[in-house]
Amino acid sequence: MESQVPLRRLLLVVLAVIVAAVLYRVGGDALGWRSGYAPAPRTAALEASEAEGSADAAAEAASAATGATRDEVARERAALSDRVGEYLALRRADAWPELYELVDPSQRERVGLASFLETYGHGVLDVRRIEARALRLDPARGLASVDVHTEATLRPERLPPAFRGSLRIGSEADLQRSTDHSMVWVLHDGAWYYRLEQEILSGVDAEGRQVTGLGLPGG
Known about the structure:
By secondary structure, the protein is α+β, with helices and mostly antiparallel strands.
């Protein structure tokens, strides 16, 4: 009997060791504590990747909310960019009859070609540089805004007589014009058109003066 007691104790000790080993393995696997394994450290690259993924997910959610896929938005952006490029090329060429065709059709019903050319078609500005610097698209509403930078030289002799007398030029520097303005573009029957400023539609500015095409968005 006395010899069986140490044997029973030995068996209990062995059993306790086995149970402890099993518990350690299971718990260690769950927490990443096993020998030779540790959780991957969080790096700046990993966090940037996660942030980029979150931004992509947000963009996809926004596109889904508008009913447009990312590819559809990209196609509209490309179409708008091409249309803006056409506008800029026509501005460089001073081709106002062709530019009139890019005006929002609903506004062309209010402003005829003759009135449009009376405002813009005098070749008053020689465009040295014109470029689009930002494009913001709202596909859900079929709207966009485009920031345009223009550098041009004023040709006073080409102004209508009604405006020529009121223009005061002190030096050659006064003939140099540099403007930044935001143009509104609208989607109409699958094509993009730019909108004229309200002053052009009414023919007068906020102070009641007759409008010319100098320095106005779309002009």
